Amino acid sequence: MVVLPQPVTLDNHISLIPTYKPVPVLTSHSIPVVNLTDPEAKTRIVKACEEFGFFKVVNHGVRPELMTRLEQEAIGFFALPQSLKNRAGPPEPYGYGNKRIGPNGDVGWIEYILLNANPQLSSPKTSTVFRQTPQIFREAVEEYMKEIKEVSYKVLEMVAEELGIEPRDTLSKMLRDEKSDSCLRLNHYPAAEEEAEKMVKVGFGEHTDPQIISVLRSNNTAGLQICVKDGSWVAVPPDHSSFFINVGDALQVMTNGRFKSVKHRVLADTRRSRISMIYFGGPPLSEKIAPLPCLVPEQDDWLYKEFTWSQYKSSAYKSKLGDYRLGLFEKQPLLTHKTIV
Question: Do residues 264 and 201 lie in contact, with contact meaning Cβ atoms separated by under 8 Å?
Answer without folding.
Answer: no
